[in-house]
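User: Predict the full complex structure for these chains.
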Amino acid sequence: MVELAPPPSEDFQGIWENGLGSQMELSVQGNDVSGIYRTNVGEPTPTEEFDLTGFASGDLITFTVNFGKYGSLTAWAGQHTVIRPGEFEIKTLWHLAKNIAEQNEPKELWSGILAGANSFVRPTP
Amino acid sequence: MVELAPPPSEDFQGIWENGLGSQMELSVQGNDVSGIYRTNVGEPTPTEEFDLTGFASGDLITFTVNFGKYGSLTAWAGQHTVIRPGEFEIKTLWHLAKNIAEQNEPKELWSGILAGANSFVRPTP
Amino acid sequence: MVELAPPPSEDFQGIWENGLGSQMELSVQGNDVSGIYRTNVGEPTPTEEFDLTGFASGDLITFTVNFGKYGSLTAWAGQHTVIRPGEFEIKTLWHLAKNIAEQNEPKELWSGILAGANSFVRPTP
Amino acid sequence: MVELAPPPSEDFQGIWENGLGSQMELSVQGNDVSGIYRTNVGEPTPTEEFDLTGFASGDLITFTVNFGKYGSLTAWAGQHTVIRPGEFEIKTLWHLAKNIAEQNEPKELWSGILAGANSFVRPTP
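Assistant: Here is the predicted structure of the four-chain assembly.
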């Protein structure tokens, strides 16, 4: 039996931006998160869209985006938090796996994972 | 338009174990990964099952598991690799987000993320 | 022979703050970084000081702080960058190792590492 | 006043290997760790040596290595543990900061940090 998890306690639904030209649009159904991740938003280069899947429970969220077209997959883990009344942030850390040529794997495998932090906020109206 | 990613180049389908009493059973459809993550496998404590969702492209995989029942969500990113002929490993790093009490968030928010490494291999027959 | 590394290209010397009540005071000699890390700066609780050691080369810096009194050690890795002309930031990721009771180690060892991000800026005059 | 930390409870002193052609030789004085990190050990390519500095307290250790000659600095955080009686391991996670060209920094800064895991054991006699 798959274990029951508390539903999201926060409103993750809708659009979030990371301030670096990326935007995500989340749909939440129970604990399931699905959506679209957009890069180069508001830039001369065309906006590109990538599939997103994940989970939300309580004020926590994890999600992953399929950047396979560019040879990488990224997974985020984070928490919804209140910056100030009415202003919200999803504070995350991420790992990005990118392909390492097969012949270099034994020594370099770990060098195929990048790490970083992202804060997502609601777009300014 | 959602961007096209190369399909998985490796066989991620089926059962993988991490040697620490956890097991996952993956289903792959195109780039979409779904499945079940089991803990306490082979122990006196009962096996528990948790939902898993993610992506695979080339030899890369990302996935997240809904441990919301236990107040956490975990996201893995990694790569399929050959240890020796016929023996395979998914080498991953993970972030686990766990709930921080609201009143402690401003100072402790980052302390809500644990990090680690897991290697998943095929179960010994 | 120990390999030669380029000297720091940025001015890491002096006081930096992380906006969460912590402050560090760095001394740089060649590639060697030493200093003091202060917590609870500007708060009613007394300021505490902890030893810091690390390296700087080019615009990169790594350092670790001895929080052993509180059962943990933390290591940062990051880069000096320009936010806007005359305004600088050291953007870092960190791992904090904290003690796990010996009997829990086999299963929980990885859960002894927390991860996070810190941005250090010059104190406002 | 710099806070007092418990001394190391484990014997970190001496040579440790990561099984990927790297070796470190640690000296411990109180909580201070210094040493040399060697790469390409036992390979046709010549062994190179890099400075190491860090801390140990209880069974925890953090250290950083100056790979500045190769444009990177790495910081490890981990714990000494017993694999089986008489066999020890230092299980670590690391961040490697590598230089990002100044003009690419605003968007790519976080992509300058790699993450990974290393297990160090005593060399086989």
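Chain A has a mean pLDDT of 89.
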